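Hey, quick one: can you model this chain's 3D structure?
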Amino acid sequence: MNIKGIFLRLWRLIIQPGAEWKEISSASPREDVARMFVYPLTAVCGVAYLLGQVVRGEWGGGHFFSSAMSAVVHCVALLLTYFLVAWCVNQLRVRYLHQEEDMPLSFMLTGYSMALIFALTIFVGLFPEMVLFKWILQFYVVYIVWNGAHTIMEVEEDKQMTFTLVTSALLLAVPAVVNLVFDKWVL
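Sure thing. Here's the predicted structure for all 187 residues.
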């Protein structure tokens, strides 16, 4: 997938998640979500954070190392979120939904459900003073996960709310915890 395709998918997952999840589920064969969506957008998030630092003038005067390390921490947080939440989603499939283990499907749901998180991270990286919008808008991820759980995971209706809320909570909490640990305690 080219960069235009990545951003079109990102846009459609945010604007029309139901229709985009149907398109994703009908695609054959399954594409490598990490390589085609998650990794490129993670890199864009890191670059957006660095550009935000440059625009605000926080780049020079010895701040280069701390700016670069903060960008790396944001990228690591996004990647850890992707892998940890995918593993948790797979465990939910097996233990809560009583479905067979399917890591590629769990990676697909997790990676594409992170679309809003990527978009908000890019936006706040460029305009950090708008962080309040991120805190408000990030809860829309619940709707994206809801559509994905129904469409590609085929979650039963009586278990869909719990599955959606647990997955969404993980998608929102993991990057915040990783950023807190690395930004405040390690760096």
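One thing worth noting: The two ends are 35 Å apart (CA to CA).
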